[in-house]
Specification:
The protein is of the alpha+beta class and 269 residues long. The chain has 3 domains: 88 residues, no CATH class; 78 residues, no CATH class; 93 residues, Chitinase A, domain 3. It contains 10 helices and 4 strands. The two termini are 61 Å apart.
Length: 269
Amino acid sequence: MISIRKLIREPMFVFIVGGSVLFVLDSGNARSGDGRSAAVIEIDEQVLALAVDNRERLTGKPLSELETKAALDAYVDEEILVREAYRRGLHDDGVIRSRLKNKMRLLLGANHPEPERADLERWYAEHAEEYAEPTQWTLEQVYLPRDQAAPDNVLQMLEQAGAGAFEWRDNPRFPRHLQAESTESIAARFGQHVADAVDEASGKDWFGPVLSPYGSHYFRVIAREAGEVPPFEHLAAYIERDWREAQINSSVDRALAGLRQQYRVLQVD
């Protein structure tokens, strides 16, 4: 395959590409249809080499003179479309801004070292709680529907006679006993505030009422089994992923702190 630098020095290449460059540059002295000065697209040796290299990577073979001119024309068309997109404000489109932001985050966070095992083990030790299995709860529940008037001394009745103090209505959604339920499943079943109340419960006394859209709930914790942290080897892939994400975020934060020095932010009323 002919090298790009050698191709650039070929007389026919210079003739064809040079004509295209002169055409583009000459357009800078022309007028657009509405009388405005036409924008200039400058093409140097680096741009030429990039256009040829990109096309050769797609075709898998050296370009002919006509193919080279077509590659240059395609670059010019792309440059025009991008500039027009900016001129028409498309860079303010939410989707495009998000893609540009994400691309910049990738660029700013790209330069960080590969992790050593010691780095990952240290991360695992410092964030062990984040990798723990969910806590499992075994609960006893008394559920009073919204349409059922509740006595004022429900907790006292429960402490004296237990859940049997109330007639139980079979309800698959709100069973009398909940066995080995995770905090997440309790939140999904009753609501996050109910899961929080269970998580904050102390001892094995009845507590409540905890209100939900369905009624009043009274609970007693029978057993709480804290989730174990799996061994490092079982989590290695997740630990490396999280470590890399943290490094990228740190790099982006440092880069943004430096870039912010180049901008002056004015809050306009």
